[in-house]
Design brief:
alpha/beta; eight-stranded mixed β-sheet; globular
Length: about 575
Amino acid sequence: MNDKADEKLEQYRKPQAPASAANRLWPLYGAGWENLGKDGGAMELPVPKPGPDELLVRHDAVGICFSDIKVIRAGENHPRIHRSMKEEPVVLGHEVALTVVEAGENLRDQYKPGDRYIVQADIYIGGKPYAYGYELQGGFSKYSIIDWRVLNGDHGNYLVPVKPDDGYAEVALCEPWACVEASYTVVYRTTWQEGGVVWLIGDGKGVSLGKATAWRPAKVVLDVSDSEFAGQVRAWAASAGVVVQEGDDGATKYDDIVVLGHDADLCERVFPRLANGAIFNIVLDQPLPRAVAVDIGRMHYDHLLVVGADASDLSAAYTPVRTQLKPGGRCWILGAAGPMGQMHLLRALSMPGKPAKVVATNLHAARMAPVRKMFERQAAELGVEITFLSRDDFADEAAFLARKWAESDNQGYDDVVIMAPSTTAVQQASEVTADGAVINVFAGLARGTLVELDLNPVAQRGVRYTGTSGSSIEDLRHMRDLVESKQLPTNHSVAAIAGLEGVGDGLHAVAEGRFAGKVVIYPNLSKPLPLTPLTELDKVLPGVAAKLDADGMWTREAEDELLREML
């Protein structure tokens, strides 16, 4: 091993001062690719000096996210941008691993040079978003300042410490991985919202409150036609100290809406009245006569849950929702060839309680081929049956769906994970579910996107739709723990690497869907490294390529060799 290279790597891990007085970064001056960079590339500014309550940090690795592309396309119309980008350009990059270089005088007891962190990007101050890589300068820069907004925001300190010997890429990718993991650890209510508002609407004949008599909302809005049920509700409310309002006011957003009866028109009319985090409960006396158009975007972004029962007890639907993959079950991952799809696939193969069978599908066979190469051997070693299917291998959509049903052993899937932002994908998923199935609508369709869903399986067979957006500080800490305990190898998500000069090409590659996995930028390499797929690394850096694992995946050893050669 080259002693000089090892010495440089050791010095890099314990920085005392910036190696150069220049800070290189990629500015974005507004919507459109023409506004990315200074003359199409990175620009240089002096390295900033931290104030008394600030930290100067070095960005060690940063993943490119499709959310970065959304900012390039939307510019100041993006919901997380709140300033003139021409006057104050945005520096993107929120999937970051960083190291403290210098602490301001008031922070030197708490932060030392060499301390390492990752960042929970969704930072809020007084309820207003100041996201890292959006309002705050992000990772497409060598250095940046961390100020009080990151260290003392609405949710406390948004920096999450990591161990000194963690890989840079593996912890940088904790941020997107935390969003994946959060979709499996979400917990839903099993009662009416305590202190909330419930709307009981519909027929109500033959229905009982069941266990709901022990629940304590603040108010029940009574809008039912059956007098016997209405009397039951009034009597309970009087004894429980719950306010009863006769009839809807046309404006209230409800924490729980309970539709009594099989009126599909009524379901569609009241669904928009759900508050964020609300539960929609359909209590069927007989099957719904048709599919119901529901806002799938709100189910994802606003954390809505649809439950139901075909029993007379309206509380019967409020059972715990399984969000982990069913051990020994059948799992369909739809859109498995993209970066997030690969994460879900890798998680299915890595975590305890693995499914017995995974069916991974994608539109194009060309994109599925590298995914097959990466995961086929791993699945076989773990005893998980895995099948890879691509839409363009089939004559039409009907033949594709028929094959997917057959691959479920003609029994339906226990779990369906949807990466494709497509109403057709959601509808197809609803048609191939087993009893008690969970459909994870991970892809974010815009609020207001209506999908016609057969909700009878929700009430009759316990099918549930889940959807989460983003992650919390606790989610990021949990993800860091999974990485540091070697339970989830986030490095396996890496598909291409580059130095800071490769940011532009990397963003274009993500926008075009050029790689199945993640693009990771190393902003502080001393030598230029253009965007390089791992599959071509042997042509550029053969010594680094030799440190990839048997399946050609990124490793901590490969990263160390990259730094030895490029610092």
